[in-house]
Amino acid sequence: MEETDVLSRWRRAKGWRKPGRVALANVTAVEPHEPMHASLLAGGVSLSAAPLRDQDGSINSDVAESDVVVSGGTPLGEDVFSALRATRLLLRPYVGYDDIDIDAATRHGILVANVPDAIAEDVANQAMALILAANRELMRLDTFVRDGEWARIRRRKPDWMTLHRPSAQTLGLVGFGTIARATARRARQF
Q: Measuring CA to CA, which residue among 130, 147, 82, 133 is closest to residue 108?
């Protein structure tokens, strides 16, 4: 693809569909009440949810003909970018894009962007939930109750369980980026 062909998708503003088509690759459905989907739909965007690839491995036509592709969780290389006929922007809706071939996207005139803080609060909530579950040995206790052992021993806790109050423990977080800082704010309450 020559440079003039690559740049033509940007130079033909009259050809841009306004407000445009956005494909949510590998999303099962457009959910009109989900905030991001609702805001795009309210703006008049033609929004579709489609698999990135069809059964035969080719790029889905809804994705290939979209102005913007929102895609996460799958490597994107030359084969994908060469099939995106109308796409001007590929958006990764979270941190990281190390599995995206930026050079291939550039060769095809497609900008790549990510939204690093998009789900940081949700991930911090999940991290805190898992920390508390580990602290209380939740999975082992669930099995203990389901297997009828709690009813059998008729005590508050099994002998193998040692309770550790979070207020008397130290939480260590490897790295201290956005998610770790949000997790630390939550943990401070304990």
A: 82
